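Protein modeling request. Please complete all fields; requests missing the sequence field cannot be processed.
Requester role: graduate student
Desired output: 3D structure, token encoding
Chains: 1
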Amino acid sequence: MKWETLTNPLDEPVLTGRTATGLRVIMNPRPDWVRTFAAFGVNFGSVDRVGGTDGEPVPEGLAHFLEHKLFEDERGDVSDRFAALGASTNAMTGFTGTTYISSTIADPEPCLDLLLDFVQEPWFTDELVEKEQGIIAQEIRMYDDDPDWRVFFGLLGCLYRSHPVKDNIAGSVESIAEIDAATLRHCYDLFYHPNNLCLVVSGPMDPERVAALVERDQGDRPEDSRAAHQRGVSDEPRDAIEGRCALTLPVSRPRLLMGIKETVLGGSAREQARRKLATRVALDLLLGRSSPGFESLYQEGLVDESFGVSYSSEAGFGFTTLGGDTDEPERLEQRIWEILGRSRTGGLDVSAFERVRNKLLGSMLRSLDSPESVAYQLLNGAFRGEAPFEALAILDELTPDDLLARLEEHVREEARAVAVVHPTGG
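Delivered output (426 residues):
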């Protein structure tokens, strides 16, 4: 495997290479760091409910189930072996990807070896799958008691008609009951192949040591002739499906979560990144913690420290969420929409725009001091086709007019929905 240098706005040392099998490797060598962090990701998440050239159906919650099962093999729990090496490990399943990580200040080579091995050498038996079904079912029931989780997916159910983003990442008790060892193996083979995987290493390891280790691991594996997974275009409607939903849970105060469905989708990787950054800056400017909008809501007693604003998007879906605990959910809903609507006609404060943009820029630069943050950025960018740290250059290009145009296309009444949690007996 030969390294190539990836250019980036910061002139950070970022190297990339591809093995003969098709596995892509990205390296950010930091000789002055103490800790080595590795992220091994697969382009397969909870929204991927079909796979392969024939569109084979994938059960709801399968990506999350696979994440759990890969940590157990004929020798037991893989986490124990990482601990014996002086390392920590974990994994997480999201909407569009699953990532397995290791972190250590000890010798990183055996940790990297183990990370590559357990992700690429699954061991499934019906007995262990049945045991795992009980564990995950318990996890799902725990989520059912979590008001944040319930209101979030309640909101997504209002926004989306059929897109799998509305479904619980862990699946349902009913859907995971249908999974057996053969199903796991079949879906593993559909998605866990070199051209659909990417390894990122950030830390003091020498790049040539990383290359040699990966080459040894891939040496006996066959060349991958399959293309990376591509998600199909959804026929999801532009507008929200339901205007609102209400839940009753044992909480002390009502909770409001407003959502806006993204209807401007697709485009190049850079266009998607620009859209995402413009939306995040605009929302922070209008309702972030240091904004006049948040201050007015706080002074009116409508919000507290639980209030938050976020925007998430991928090529085929996206949404804004705004809300938190409040004693007056209906009034808070009205006021949030007033603030968003007023900005579309009244313009934006240019000085505040510069402050918010500089704050985000500073946050991005600080993140480069963390091996975890660097690895996640490089991994996510690789799957999305983004150049390393390109967000910094895009952020520098944004203008207040860009934000106004983004608000005009995104903040639509027809794309809005609201989920409210009411206290039991309230």
